[in-house]
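Consider the tokenized backbone below.
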């Protein structure tokens, strides 16, 4: 399994990775939350690997067959393996009750993933509270790609190298215009959307450099106006420029700006406080 997909320079993502690696050797229950495409299943396998688990002992459970899967788990898997339950929010009521009892009686590394806030489901009586607490002994939340812009080019460069080898190309870099185009996109599909876009661009490229015209994006961008960055511009400067232009575009309406940028209002507020401290310094 190639964990290059989880490469990061983002402080919050780094924090989640360090926490996962620290707890991994223990038989704990992990709940991983994140949007579609952020790499929740990759994180689950990362945890399994950090626990020195062999690949065959990583078992993905099936919805609708949970009873069958759990009752057939071997003692070896329970002792040293990892059970992975994707989309925990889809569990039916009877499955929730059964799983809660099963976890109570079995000491195993159990990793569930979800795109939905299970706490909210508990509050709305749509998810068993006891099961929630048994699943979320260790809670990890993977930030969306658009909330960690510093990782965008890091991952894009990795995908360019990977697909250049796969498709026998000799691409050595991306043009500034290509980078601007990537920066303008909200990346709702996260890592796997970026992967698809870069593979397509590599296939379309006819030279040593990936150009803006090679990058085919589907739908409108979040770019409120033409933005150009010169060579040497840092990712932090580009991120700040994008945020400030979006705020001007929305007449400083932070809620609308956060929505256009595809980030939470909390993330936007933290970024603005960071910029304010820079001025004070």
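A designed sequence for it:
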């Amino acid at each position: 399994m190639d964990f290059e997909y989880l490469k990061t320079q983002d402080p919050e993502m780094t924090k989640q990775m360090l926490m996962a690696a620290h707890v991994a050797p223990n038989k704990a229950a992990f709940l991983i939350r994140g949007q579609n495409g952020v790499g929740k299943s990759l994180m689950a396998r990362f945890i399994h690997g950090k626990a020195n688990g062999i690949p065959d002992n990583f078992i993905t459970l099936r919805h609708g067959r949970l009873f069958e899967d759990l009752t057939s788990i071997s003692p070896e898997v329970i002792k040293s393996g990892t059970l992975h339950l994707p989309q925990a929010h889809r569990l039916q009521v009877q499955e929730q009750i059964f799983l809660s009892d099963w976890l109570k009686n079995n000491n195993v590394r159990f990793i569930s993933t979800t795109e939905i806030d299970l706490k909210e489901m508990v509050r709305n009586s749509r998810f068993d509270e006891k099961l929630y607490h048994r699943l979320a002994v260790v809670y990890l939340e993977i930030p969306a790609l658009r909330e960690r812009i510093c990782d965008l080019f890091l991952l894009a460069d990795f995908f360019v190298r990977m697909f250049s080898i796969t498709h026998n190309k000799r691409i050595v870099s991306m043009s500034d215009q290509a980078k601007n185009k990537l920066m303008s996109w909200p990346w709702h599909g996260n890592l796997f959307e970026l992967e698809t876009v870069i593979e397509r661009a590599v296939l379309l490229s006819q030279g040593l450099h990936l150009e803006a015209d090679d990058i085919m994006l589907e739908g409108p961008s979040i770019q409120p106006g033409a933005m150009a960055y010169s060579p040497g511009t840092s990712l932090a400067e580009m991120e700040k420029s994008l945020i400030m232009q979006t705020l001007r575009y929305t007449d400083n309406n932070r809620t609308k700006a956060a929505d256009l940028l595809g980030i939470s209002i909390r993330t936007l507020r933290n970024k603005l406080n960071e910029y304010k401290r820079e001025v004070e310094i």
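The beta strands are 29-33, 58-60, 82-85, 109-114, 138-141, 173-174, 209-210.
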